[in-house]
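Hi everyone, sorry if this is the wrong subforum. Our group has a chain we'd like a structural model of before ordering constructs, and none of us has done structure prediction before. Sequence below.
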Amino acid sequence: MTCTATTIRAGTSCSSSTCTRWQTYTKQGGCPALSQACNSQACPQKVNCVVSGWGQCSKTCGGGTQTRSVTKPAANGGTACPALSRSCNSKACPSGPLDKCLSGSVDLDIAKAKVTSNNLGGLGPKSGEQAIRYSGVGTYNGDSLDLVVTVRAGEYVKNNVRPVNGMICGNLNSGNHGTGHVICNSGGHFAQINVRAGPKSYKAQLRFTVQKTKNKQAVTLPGFAVTFFDIDQNQADGNSPKKQVREIFTVHKGYHKAVYDKTNKDVDFSESGGVFTAKSKKLGHGCDNPVDPLTSKIIKCQKKGGRWIEVDQKKRSAMFMFKSKSYFDVDFETVCNKCAKDGRNFLFGFRSFMADDCR
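Answer:
Right subforum, don't worry. Here is the predicted structure as tokens:
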């Protein structure tokens, strides 16, 4: 502006304090400066986002996710952070032996394991940990796995006529009825737990837990299979008035799928409220005992008098798929009818010939 001889008032506003000042100037007076320097401190520098490297893919195949983290956030108008996740390993996974039963399941195997503890319920034959521990049944994410069987409730009683708990490495006396199994600590395809029978009935309430071998911590698997074999009884078929011992096992809530022959007449299978029960109905002959969990057979056993009995091993088995579980609960029960002191062997393993029947 130009100052004239006339008295004027010039106003200056202070943006920093939002104030207004007024001054009077007379003629011939010069105008004051209409601008001044401010905020002379250096402006902050821009900071661009910095991120870490990509982490491990969440899956080795079938499409997983990789993530990375922000190590330094953007500031003062710096470059924004890039994407922090991306897809990886999109190639289809090779088909696993249990995929049609439950995709992504871990394939466990008794034959890979060793019995490193054998003292279920504190009844021996070994001392120490009150459990049966099958060490090295498989691996998951690079960790060796154990299957550990413990008594979760009640009393456990077994028949001590001969070694009965552990792993089966064959049949005594060529499998003739009543002679039992060869018990070992490694090299067998089946695990076995014996439950006393007679002169009354007994029930073993058990928990099966998958643990890491190195630290004995329970580990949740995406899926795995467990099969129970050779569901039969002694002395007579059905619920006979004769002296006999029947087998019953119950798998409690928590299994994802049960695979069994719903039309068979050898075992009474039932599912109700998420609980599975199997009750034996047919006599076991010893010679019909399974020898390979991956191969089922129809066995012909010759009884006294030359009569042949035909047994379909698949009809006397049931497989269960467990999803996102680290343990499951099972009851083994013997039902005694006029029987003397005896016992029944409950056989189990993991993946079996029943996987062929998955839908």
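For your construct planning: The radius of gyration is 38 Å. The first strand starts at residue 8 and ends at 14.
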